[in-house]
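Project outcomes to date are best conveyed with an example. Our students and postdoctoral researchers have been running inverse folding experiments weekly, and each run begins with a structure described purely in tokens. The record below, which covers 532 residues, was selected by the lab manager from last quarter's runs and is presented without edits.
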């Protein structure tokens, strides 16, 4: 009887474990669907892609999620001429991938992975024969991309993305591509409110014998982000780039939607204010040891952010710059207002909207939502700026703040200006200032190239230099600036409506208006007394 009893107990235990595993797998499947739905919403919000289709089929022990994306050609358009012909068809194709989801509590058991989790997600990319053939040209038999996502019981997880390296060469066209791979690790908490990121791209080289070359190496990005009490994301992020080299042999017109690229990288919309257009002339550019770092912290309901940017060397043809150091802080920013402003701006559609209309929408939103940012004593500080240039060195330290601003002051320009507090100490080469003035003069006097009468640019430049020399001489005589061995320096202080430059008081328009009326003259006073 004893062996039979043991057998019954063992059977009951095994059955209980199977029931528990089934129930846990079903529960984990529901929770995994919630997590993956959040991920899909984040993916759909990226301007780089457009979602063509999406479906989710949940089972008991496993599920499948299928998504089809297409590239947003509005973003890739300006850069497509630089790509090899074999690479361009990829931009017209769709990206279809299927997530194969194994539910917990031990989703990796079949591969001898005993780590507990809600689910283990592996991604399979479906491609057309043409796309697969194109990618096979670059990657050979290797998978172009591998994505695994382990969903933890707490709602967070670990995402790992790997793109293998490849070497590619077209003997006839002279095109060479060398890609050293890409690796991304993302450790995220429930709701993606906290996450740690580490991404590495060892290097890339693209050579086109008739057009030029592009190369970079040593790209690394790390971040550690968490939400503050106000809802603003706090933490650190840092990007480092070892070297960048650009060489192009032909003039290349460009029109870059930097606002959309900034949003893609930072989820901050900056409107149409920074979209450059023009022409890259045949040039050689290199950048060495580039780094930027942003640190955000919170004190009560106010946000303090500090950013540092530096590089060792920047070369443009025969012009050499560097090193560069830039250290800037934005302090005492009202956190709740920043959050409201971000939410309001993120709801403004920008794709396909006329730039003038979009600019007005941004300005109106800032006016309506952003006033508390100004009325809570914000301050911008340039802790350090240093740049070595061919003509000398430029340094700048200073701060710009608002102190005691009231909303009513916004309706009075004089009252508004008196709330500012500014300090600055500047030193720069005279030659640099001269180059800036000459460049501006050329722009002002430039006319239509088809016009019969063209200005003599040499005379325009000589005139600009002469006017600048006269102005600098006047400022030196009045002690507003100092000049020593071709280096110009000055300092500025403004507080309470009073301005001084180089420790010399400067009169402002409202000070003349506020001067008291002159008193009556002595003879007039005596006459008035006699009349009494």
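After processing, the design step wrote out the following sequence:
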């Amino acid at each position: 009887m004893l062996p039979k009893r043991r057998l019954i107990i063992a059977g009951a235990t095994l059955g209980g474990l199977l029931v528990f595993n089934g129930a846990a797998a079903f529960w984990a499947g529901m929770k995994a669907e919630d997590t993956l739905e959040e991920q899909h919403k984040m993916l759909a919000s990226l301007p780089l892609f457009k979602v063509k289709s999406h479906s989710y089929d949940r089972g008991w022990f496993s599920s499948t999620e299928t998504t089809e994306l297409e590239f947003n050609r509005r973003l890739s358009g300006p850069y497509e001429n630089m790509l090899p012909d074999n690479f361009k068809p990829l931009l017209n194709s769709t990206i279809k991938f299927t997530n194969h989801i194994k539910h917990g509590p031990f989703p990796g058991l079949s591969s001898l992975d005993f780590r507990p989790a809600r689910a283990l997600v592996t991604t399979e990319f479906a491609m057309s024969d043409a796309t697969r053939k194109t990618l096979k040209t670059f990657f050979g038999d290797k998978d172009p991309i591998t994505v695994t996502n382990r969903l933890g019981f707490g709602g967070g997880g670990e995402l790992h993305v790997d793109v293998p390296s490849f070497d590619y060469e077209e003997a006839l066209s002279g095109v060479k591509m060398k890609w050293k791979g890409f690796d991304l690790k993302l450790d995220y908490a429930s709701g993606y409110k906290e996450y740690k990121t580490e991404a590495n791209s060892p290097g890339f080289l693209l050579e086109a014998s008739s057009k030029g070359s592009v190369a970079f190496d040593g790209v690394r990005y790390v971040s550690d982000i968490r939400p503050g009490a106000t809802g603003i994301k706090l933490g650190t992020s840092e990007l480092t780039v070892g070297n960048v080299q650009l060489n192009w042999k032909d003039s290349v017109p460009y029109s870059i939607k930097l606002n959309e690229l900034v949003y893609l990288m930072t989820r901050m919309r900056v409107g149409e204010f920074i979209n450059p257009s023009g022409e890259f002339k045949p040039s050689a550019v290199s950048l060495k040891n580039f780094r930027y770092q942003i640190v955000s912290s919170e004190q009560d309901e106010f946000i303090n952010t500090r950013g540092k940017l530096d590089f060792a060397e920047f070369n443009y043809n025969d012009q050499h710059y560097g090193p560069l150091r830039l250290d800037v802080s934005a302090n005492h920013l009202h956190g709740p207002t920043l959050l409201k402003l971000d939410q309001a701006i993120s709801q403004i559609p920008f794709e396909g909207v006329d730039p003038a209309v979009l600019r007005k929408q941004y300005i109106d939103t800032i006016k309506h939502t952003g006033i508390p940012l100004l009325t809570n004593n914000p301050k911008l500080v340039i802790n350090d700026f240093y740049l070595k240039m061919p003509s000398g060195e430029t340094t700048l330290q200073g701060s710009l703040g608002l102190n005691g601003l009231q909303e009513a002051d916004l309706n009075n320009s004089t009252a508004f200006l008196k709330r500012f507090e500014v300090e600055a100490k500047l030193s720069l080469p005279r030659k640099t200032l001269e180059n800036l003035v000459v460049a501006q003069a050329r722009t002002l006097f430039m006319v239509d190239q088809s016009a019969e009468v063209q200005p003599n640019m040499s005379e325009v430049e000589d005139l600009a230099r002469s006017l600048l020399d006269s102005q600098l001489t006047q400022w030196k005589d009045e002690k507003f600036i100092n000049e020593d061995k071709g280096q110009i320096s000055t300092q500025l202080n403004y507080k309470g409506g009073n301005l001084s430059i180089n420790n010399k008081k400067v009169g402002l328009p409202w000070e003349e208006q506020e001067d008291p009326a002159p008193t009556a003259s002595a003879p007039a006073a005596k006459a008035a007394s006699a009349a009494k």
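Residues 391-443+475-506 form one domain. The mean pLDDT is 82. The training component of this project remains on track.
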